[in-house]
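Researcher: We're teaching a course module on how sequence relates to structure. For the next exercise, students receive a sequence and then see the predicted structure as C-alpha cells, so they can try to spot secondary structure elements on their own. Here is the exercise chain.
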Amino acid sequence: MLPNALLSLLILPALGAVPSSALRINCGDCNAFQAIQVILDGEDIKTDASVQVVGIAPGRHDLKLVKWVNPFKTETYYEGVVDFPAGTELRAKVTKGKLDIYGRGQYAPPTPPRADFAPPRIVQGVRMADGSPAVRVSRRVTLTGMKGAVFHHGCRLRARGGEWGAWTSSQEFTVPSDPFTTELSWDHPYSSLDEINSSRGRFVIDMSVFDRANTLATSETAVEVPRRYLQPDEGDDDDDEEEQDRPRHRHHRRH
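Model: And here is the predicted structure for the students to work with:
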C-alpha cells in the first residue's frame, strides 16, 4: 500500500484541489550515527537525520517520530496530531517529547519530469563515418522538470509488421536547464535495414527517452526506404536514378 503522503501527491494535482503541503523535520539531538523515523498516518515514510515529506493533503494528520538510537534500539520522541495548512511547508525540529515547528514557508510541488517530442525529420542517403549510406531519423525533444537530472535515449527498429529488434542506447547526459531542448538523431545504415527487410522497404523506428528509473517519452516513426538503397550493388543506384530521369525528359516540351 502506498503511503498517504504519496497518495496525496498523486491525487491532488489530478483533482485540481487546494495545494498540497510538506514537512521538513530535523532531529535535534541525533549524532552522525543516529536518525529519526517519520511515520505519517501509520505509514513509514523515511528514516534519516533530516527528512522532507512532500505532497501531504492539507488538514490534520497523525504524526509519529521515532529516534533510532542505534541499530538495535529505538525511542518514540513524538506522537500526536499536526495540522498542515495548504501550500505550506512546515519546518520542525524534534527532541524527546517535543516537536518545535520553528518556521513555515510557501510550498509548491515540483514539476514532474516529462519529455515532449517534436515531429520527426527523415533524411535519406546520409553517409556514415565509414562512408556507407544510411537513413537519418531525428527528433527534437524538450525536457521539463529535469534540471540536474540524468537522461539517456535509445532506439530500436523493425520491418513493418515484424518484431522489434534490440535497443541501442546513448550515453547518459545531465540536463543543464529547465526546460532543455536538444535534438536526438540516429543513423540506420541501409545494409542493416536490408537484413530485416520483409515489408518492401517499410520500417518503423522507435526513439525513446529515459531517466534512471522510467521511460519519459516514446515515439514511433514510419520510414519508407527507396528500393535502390536496399540493393547491395551500388551500380543499381545509378541505374535507378537514370530510370527516374527518363520520364522527366519525355515530358519536357519542345520549343
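Model: If you want an answer key for the exercise: Residues 1-16, 232-255 have pLDDT under 50 and may be disordered. The chain is about 15% helix and 50% strand.
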